[in-house]
Specification:
single chain, 438 residues, alpha+beta, Alpha-Beta Plaits, Chitinase A, domain 3, Trigger factor, domain 2, 3 domains, five-stranded antiparallel beta sheet, elongated
Amino acid sequence: MTVNVETLDKLERKITLTLPVEVIETEVQTRLKRLARTVRMDGFRPGKVPMNVVAQRYGYSVQYEVMNQKVGEAFERAANEAALRVAAPPHITEKQDAPEGELAFDAVFEVFPEVKIKDLSDVTIERLSAEVNDAAIDKTLEILRKQRRTFAQRAHDAQVQEGDRVTVDFEGKIDGEAFQGGKAEDFQFVLGEGQMLKVFEDAVRGLKIGDSRSFPLVFPDDYHGKDVAGKQADFLVTVKKIEAAHLPEVNEQLAKSLGIADASVAGLRADIRKNLEREVKFRLLARNKAAVMDALIANAELELPKSSVQAELERMIAGARADLKQRGIKDADKAPIPEEVFRPQAERRVRLGLTVAELVRANNLQTTPEQIKSHIEELASSYERPAEVIRWYYDDQRRLSEVEAVVMENNVTGFVLERVTVVDKTLEFDELMAQQQA
């Protein structure tokens, strides 16, 4: 058949669809007869309901279903015939000037844009690398020791020192008035770990059990408690208990408590190195991938389908509302969230998605089952029961799709890095970890 496609805007198109009335009526009658054999109505035996009664009760809904199906099928045939890549379901309206014996509809829709990616050989990307050294292993060991530390009460005349766990009572007032969160009894914190503001920690340092100290404290302007942010409070703190920390020795017992197969210090360090190298690999891949994606966005020319951006906006707003609901916000599903807050991010996601899809299509960068399997096995290897984690991924198509998307992006990253000018930069281990957290 010949399909007439009308261009309304850069990506907006219109197709006129026609359907014989007879085709619709025949299908409606067929479905009503099928329905009459099973429908149940008061006063009639099953399968004995008169057709006119069935038509009166169900005719409108059946006709609506048939029209939707037939128009949808006609649109799909027309779009395929015209080799159109449709971006979203069409908006369909019935025309009033259809020829006798026919129904006519206008289908208005958007198509995916042509994506033009500039010559990648002219692009420069900074590729990061980092190594796991002995200092990184030592630092991780200290974290593991801290996680397993114990506390023992100090002598009554001992002073509070760095690393001690302190139990205090405190009360703060602003202009002589108490404020919410400004008072506590038997409050515990470890000195020097940043749980309390520095001024508070400095006031407690050096005190003994039973000692009290008054001190002024100015809350930072960006303090999480908005009611007191930027204000000065006068505090009184009293030390009630001081406990010294005891960290376990780095020995076979520690290795055994951590479930290391080779329960030795060497085995423990080797296991830490393996886990850190895996973490470094994933973090570097994420950073280098982000650099590649930024370069692709900067060097791709395309029009954005409004329907795709709108769909992404709706997904992001739904996600924001779900997050608010999870935090216990009342009526989160009705929270007014302006679309413009998310529009730049939505447009970026659509632009990147279309660019990556074109690169994958044009260069055969689709994922393989072997790549997905390998990636899942690597993710699972850091867990105590890898087989259960692997099964967890393969038991859910959504999770598998997420892995497939990651692997496909990895394919794109490798493809791009082979074609651009790469400037290698080595990061210190701590710098990589700190930047990722930031």
